[in-house]
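Please, does this match?
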Amino acid sequence: MVGSPQDISTPAEQEAALLERLRLRGVTVKPKNGWKQTIGWAHGSQEHLEAMRLGAAWRSEVNRKSTTEPDGCS
């Protein structure tokens, strides 16, 4: 059997064996970096920078509230 568990020692080998088994069954798996082709193009754009700024402001506010307001657990 291709990639049986007893002859696989590393996570990379396990992943390769799984992908091969899926390929043999006719399943296609998107490449690991496929997200970059879909949304990675925006990295560094004005919209991306604005989203990062807004996210940082939101996290800062949430963190501030979580340290100053009781959470209702006693």
